[in-house]
Amino acid sequence: MHRQRQRGQRRLGLIEELGYRVVNLGPCVPDDVLIEECRAVRPEMVVISSVNGHGYQDGLRVIRRLRAGGPLATTPVVIGGKLGVTGGEDGERAAELMAAGYDAVFDDGADPATALRGFVHALRANPPALAGRAPAR
Q1: Which residues pair with 47 in a beta bridge?
Q2: Nearest-angstrom CA–CA distance, 55 and 96
Q3: 111-66-7 Cα angle (round to 5)
Q4: How many CA atoms lie within 13 A of 93 on its CB side?
């Protein structure tokens, strides 16, 4: 678990390094709290990280709420980390999460830092091209 926390801290540092102000809501944030904070802060991007293996289930539930309407419907949202507890199904899970509304899915087996950098550069270069949505302003 300690190694997972270290990876999470490095990802926060990477997001800041890419020029974003980070608001870390902490672990196991209830959906209502995430939605309220996003409405108040109006983030340029929402990053959801899972270290407990429930990323797929929790991610499907929360993306539906984020995409339900209002200004969050067009905010870029990415998810990464441990998507399931069994492993081996991350490709299918990633496809389902993308179909549900995520702009990018970074599974635990990939190099998340490189993938996130690539996503951010693509977002900055051509925002409307991502999942047919333009980022909220």
Answers
A1: 78
A2: 12
A3: 25
A4: 24
- pLDDT one-digit tens code per residue, 70-114: 888 989 999 988 888 776 666 788 899 999 999 999 877 767 788
pTM here is 0.80
Closest among 28, 51, 45 to 102, alpha carbons compared: 45
3-state secondary structure the chain: CHHHHHHHHHHHHHHHHCCCCCCCCCCCCCHHHHHHHHHHHCCCCEEEEECCCCHHHHHHHHHHHHCCCHHHHHCCEEEEECCCCCCCCHHHHHHHHHHHCCCEEEECCCCHHHHHHHHHHHHHHCHHHCCCCCCCC
> Any bridge partners for residue 49, and if so which?
80
